[in-house]
Amino acid sequence: MMSTNVKKLFIDVYVTIFGVKVIAMNSHRLSGKGRRMRPIMGHTMHYRRMIITLQSDYSIPSLRMKRT
């Protein structure tokens, strides 16, 4: 669970960079996949996924570049 100070910081970043209005932010921790390294079973790194809900009339443009 993220603290409210961190959520406020992320919301401020989205407002200043993208100029959007954030309604809510949720996050959940995804566990890593299992990986076998010879006789030892290991795993890849865990990571956190952020879910950001914007106001209905705002959107963030795609950052992917089209191949030509």
TrEMBL record:
<dbReference type="GO" id="GO:0006412">
    <property type="term" value="P:translation"/>
</dbReference>
<dbReference type="GO" id="GO:0005840">
    <property type="term" value="C:ribosome"/>
</dbReference>
<comment type="similarity">
    <text>Belongs to the universal ribosomal protein uL23 family.</text>
</comment>
<dbReference type="GO" id="GO:0003729">
    <property type="term" value="F:mRNA binding"/>
</dbReference>
<dbReference type="InterPro" id="IPR001014">
    <property type="entry name" value="Ribosomal_uL23_CS"/>
</dbReference>
<dbReference type="InterPro" id="IPR012677">
    <property type="entry name" value="Nucleotide-bd_a/b_plait_sf"/>
</dbReference>
<keyword id="KW-0699">rRNA-binding</keyword>
<dbReference type="GO" id="GO:0019843">
    <property type="term" value="F:rRNA binding"/>
</dbReference>
<keyword id="KW-0687">Ribonucleoprotein</keyword>
<protein>
    <recommendedName>
        <fullName>Ribosomal protein L23</fullName>
    </recommendedName>
</protein>
<dbReference type="Pfam" id="PF00276">
    <property type="entry name" value="Ribosomal_L23"/>
</dbReference>
<dbReference type="GO" id="GO:1990904">
    <property type="term" value="C:ribonucleoprotein complex"/>
</dbReference>
<dbReference type="GO" id="GO:0003735">
    <property type="term" value="F:structural constituent of ribosome"/>
</dbReference>
<dbReference type="InterPro" id="IPR012678">
    <property type="entry name" value="Ribosomal_uL23/eL15/eS24_sf"/>
</dbReference>
<keyword id="KW-0694">RNA-binding</keyword>
<keyword id="KW-0689">Ribosomal protein</keyword>
<dbReference type="InterPro" id="IPR013025">
    <property type="entry name" value="Ribosomal_uL23-like"/>
</dbReference>
